[in-house]
Amino acid sequence: MILVDSSAWIGFLRGLDSPVVERLEGLIGSGAELAITEPIIMELLAGAKRPRELARVDALTNGLLLAPLVPMTDFRDAAELYRASSANGHPIRSMTDCLIAAVAIRRGLPIVHDDRDFTFLAEISPLRLDGAE
């Protein structure tokens, strides 16, 4: 199973030509087990500006595996990732990214993304990156 961040899904939904989108398309084509977690769903739904976009996001997210939050465990681990990133001179721009990373680490899932915060988090934690990063 591979966790796919909203940054990769957004590129895919917009039809962007990027290594991350190519990787995601390859994973979809190969029938790989792709997963999301609740914060990724929230980010995708929040970005849907029109009813048609919302319907597309709903269809996408309903067809994926869910790597659910374990609230207090993941919240604490996300806070620790945030503190560690600041202590290492690279404060993460989004606490949500720390929460997504905490879920990926706990589940042992690599993450497909197009967000430099995950690249840095992988340098200071057990977070595993997948593909075109």
Automatic annotation (TrEMBL):
Identify which cofactors the protein needs according to its UniProt entry: Mg(2+)
* Superkingdom assignment: Bacteria
Query: Which positions carry the signal peptide feature in this UniProt record?
Result: none
- Residue intervals of the PIN domain: 2-119
Q: Name one Pfam family in it.
A: PIN
Q: Which GO terms describe its molecular function?
A: hydrolase activity; magnesium ion binding; RNA nuclease activity; toxin activity
Instruction: Write down the Gene3D superfamilies for this protein, in alphabetical order.
Output: 5'-nuclease
Q: Where does Mg(2+) bind?
A: 5, 97
Please state which protein family the record places this protein in.
Answer: Belongs to the PINc/VapC protein family.
Please give the name of this protein: Ribonuclease VapC
* Recorded name of the encoding gene: vapC
